[in-house]
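Can anyone check this?
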Amino acid sequence: MYFSYTVIYVSDVESTMNFYKNAFNLSENFLHESKQYGELNTGDTKIAFVYNSLAQSNGVKFVKNDLKNDAPGFEIALANKNVKQAYQLAIKKGASFAGSFCIGQAF
């Protein structure tokens, strides 16, 4: 068995994917023509985004992600050899600081 992907339920799949692509230099693997499901490449594992209503129509019960609320109970960690530069790019592209990161950590 191996870890294939993480799915995040969002209110706008395409905008969310564009943010992750621009802020974290990720490439698009797939975006369904309905724009209700998409995947980004992160190496061997994918990050997938599903439109809230689509997830709910499949019987999935969850608390919607909303910037006005506390962060959800999980974290996605992206590794980069130049953490400071990656952090600065993410902030420039609209990310907000929500914790800590390790500058100069060996990978």
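Reply from J.R.: I decoded it. Residues 31 and 50 are 10 Å apart (CA to CA).
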